[in-house]
Design brief:
By secondary structure, the protein is an alpha+beta fold. Helices cover 49% and strands 16% of the residues. The protein has seven helices and five strands. A hairpin with a 3-residue loop joins strand 4 and strand 5. The longest helix has 36 residues. The protein is elongated, with a radius of gyration of 28 Å.
Length: 244
């Protein structure tokens, strides 16, 4: 049997199954409605994901977690511990939804599926970073501050309810209020606690009263042993200085 005959035979079998109602033909308007629905869902999910990436970056900025990275590799565990995992899990869920929509609708060429997914991920992350630097968070913070209503996670983030450099066993930030030869006493940036900071010889030589310092090391309830210490400028932590 030649190829033309095979083609006719297959076509006839399909027509027979349609006649026997074994194959149901979808109306064109239903087909386009599904495409439109999946496309709209994909677009909405992508927009929410971009905004969520922006929120994660804003969270890290507001809590000061990124500043600990300036201490190098020893501070990496401290930064990871303070990540907003609830937002990250939500972002992962949205990524899975986007992938399922793309799989279900065949909106992208399957041959280059993984390459295209990587490109989409880069575009979404880039859009989230762009949104973060666009100043939209300052606008939203002002809007939320003017409202008395609680708006899901936005109120927590934009109404200044995030912990700013909360005392941690491995990292601390505060204002120097006392200085001795071998230690300094700092006040946490929320103004609620005083902690004695000790460390290696000469670590406090360039520390003065009124300065804001950050340190990584090991701490307890009211004392912290610093391995590394840095002076922080007000510009770096201006979102935490409302108490001073």
């Amino acid at each position: 049997m030649d190829k033309q005959s095979q083609k006719i035979d297959i076509s006839q079998k399909i027509l027979d199954k349609i006649d026997q109602r074994k194959i149901k033909i979808t109306d064109r308007w239903v087909f386009w409605a599904k495409k439109l629905g999946f496309g709209s869902g994909l677009a909405l999910t992508a927009v929410v994901l971009i905004f969520l990436i922006n929120l994660i970056l804003y969270y890290l900025q507001q809590t000061g977690s990124v500043i600990y990275l300036s201490f190098g590799l020893p501070s990496l565990a401290l930064v990871l511990k303070n990540l907003p995992f609830n937002y990250i899990i939500l972002a992962i869920i949205l990524i899975v939804i986007i992938r399922l929509i793309l799989r279900r609708t065949n909106l992208i060429y399957q041959k280059f599926y993984y390459l295209i997914m990587v490109v989409i991920a880069i575009v979404l992350i880039g859009a989230g970073i762009f949104l973060f630097y666009s100043g939209i968070n300052n606008v939203l913070a002002n809007k939320v501050a003017e409202s008395d209503k609680k708006i899901f996670i936005l109120s927590e983030i934009y109404q200044g309810q995030l912990p700013c450099f909360p005392p941690d066993r491995n990292g601390i930030v505060g204002k120097v209020i006392k200085k001795n030869i071998n230690n300094v006493t700092i006040q946490t940036l929320d103004g609620q606690k005083e902690i004695i900071v000790t460390g290696p010889p000469n670590i406090f030589d360039n520390v003065y009263l009124g300065q804001i310092i950050g340190a990584i090391g090991t701490g307890g309830e009211n004392i912290f042993v610093a391995d590394k210490l840095k002076t922080l400028t007000p510009d770096l932590i201006k979102q935490c200085l409302t108490n001073y």
